[in-house]
Design brief:
alpha+beta, elongated
């Protein structure tokens, strides 16, 4: 038994000595009971190994023990087998297999952070904050996030049925066909004279896609741009470097984000370089409860610098930094090493980002007009006061080609959005533009 315990100590020590791992603590800083607990671990390991009802490999037991140790710390620390580590590296390139949902765990239940646009999960109606309780009729409450994700993955075109628990409705089943998920992280279009950019996740292509979208807006002939809507709703995050570069695209100077860990060498600050790619146009950022991690960094920085107005609902609140530590041929471990802070010093963790203007998603239905008359319908109503030319007074007159609210006629592909939150964002930018014109006497 002692030999097993010592072997396990060697395995753990070798793992912690891997490149990029946190430095070892001083010898006199160890807890006095450390080796006693390692003996306990060795005793349990040997008993399971010899007495469990079915034969279990040492590899499976040790990997499960390591994963259990990490997952007991927080929902985002975990062990990655060599296969999982390789898949994680593929995920950050923007192409992977599965249902198309980002998940976490909450009190032993798998919780959806957000579905990814255009994926089978999004098309099936899966929403942020949905709880997944069963997969193909089997309960998954209490199992590790890693095991739950493995069960949800499978061959392309195969079916999976998941049971969803959603606030306000009875639990229900959803059947989804698995597919290869190719994420185009940036989509864009124009809505009249407003540029719309949707970022679904932060992958290696995100900044390139954003810059291409902004460049295309600038090339549009005859457009008097009123502003840009940056849509980060249901964006579960991704690469920190991409979140920093995206934020930098809208700032001239200043801090973007800082990270603070237990040790000073883990802490860092990231600052913007000169150059706002929009030329100072007003920006509205849309967020909701599915906006997490990297998307919260972008939203928080633009809000703190008063560079954008945030609209929507409170974000998810994942403000922790995970460092991926390679363990050679044995895979890697994802370890939470720091917290994110916005430029003003706000912690995102468990707090989230609160929008400047709270707008719940809604669906509007036009009401039938009430049958009431107008002034002109009254008996003996006065005629309108006309100028000598017969035209109405020019106070408040719209410019040629615009309505009184400053809207440009919609061109092909510039269809007005049915999305309520997006509509409010576009209206806000047009209202700001109209106010500026009035203030300047235009």
């Amino acid at each position: 038994m002692k030999r097993i315990a010592l072997a396990l100590v060697f395995l753990v020590s070798a793992a912690l000595a891997a490149p990029a791992a946190a430095p070892a603590r001083a010898a006199d800083d160890k807890e006095p009971d450390t080796y006693r607990y390692l003996d306990l671990f060795g005793a349990v390991f040997e008993r399971v190994r010899s007495g469990y009802v079915e034969k279990v490999t040492d590899k499976k037991l040790i990997e499960a023990a390591i994963n259990g140790m990490l997952q007991a710390l927080d929902p985002h620390s975990n062990y990655l087998s060599a296969e999982d580590f390789k898949e994680m590296q593929v995920n950050t390139t923007g192409k992977f297999g599965g249902l198309g949902i980002q998940v976490t765990t909450e009190r032993g239940i798998v919780k959806v952070i957000s579905p990814i646009d255009g994926t089978p999960a999004a098309k099936a109606g899966i929403r942020a904050n949905d709880l997944i309780t069963h997969i193909d009729g089997k309960p998954i409450i209490g199992i590790s996030l890693r095991d739950a994700v493995k069960q949800m993955r499978g061959p392309v075109d195969s079916k999976i049925t998941i049971k969803i628990r959603r606030k306000g409705v009875d639990p229900f089943d959803v059947t989804i066909v698995r597919a290869i998920i190719t994420v185009k992280s940036v989509r864009h279009r124009t809505i009249g004279n407003v540029g719309y950019v949707r970022i679904t996740s932060f992958t290696q292509q995100t900044t390139v896609g954003l810059h291409a979208a902004l460049a295309e807006f600038r090339r549009k002939p005859g457009k008097t741009w009123r502003g840009v809507v940056l849509d980060l709703r249901n964006n579960p995050g991704g690469l920190l470097s991409q979140a920093i570069d995206v934020t930098d695209s809208f700032l001239e100077r200043g801090e973007i984000v800082s990270t603070r860990g237990r040790e000073a060498k883990i802490s860092s600050r990231y600052n913007a370089k000169k150059g706002d790619m929009t030329g100072g146009l007003p920006i509205v950022v849309l967020i909701n409860s599915g906006s997490a991690s990297a998307s919260e960094i972008v939203a928080g920085a633009l809000q703190d610098h008063r560079r954008a107005i945030l609209m929507g609902t409170k974000s998810f609140g994942k403000g922790s930094v995970q460092t991926v530590v390679p363990l050679g041929s044995q895979g890697a471990m994802r370890l939470t090493t720091a917290r994110y802070y916005t430029p003003s010093g706000r912690s995102i963790q468990a707090e989230g980002i609160v929008p400047d203007i709270v707008v719940e998603q809604a669906k509007l239905t036009a009401l039938a007009p009430r049958a009431i008359g107008r002034e002109a319908d009254l008996p003996n109503a006065l005629d309108a006061d006309r100028t000598e030319s017969g035209a109405a007074p020019e106070d408040g007159a719209a410019k040629p080609g615009e309505g009184a609210d400053g809207k440009q006629p919609a061109a092909a592909g510039d269809k007005e959005p049915e999305d309520y939150q997006l509509s409010r964002a576009v209206d806000l930018l047009r209202g700001l533009a109209l106010f500026d014109r009035m203030k300047n006497g235009e």
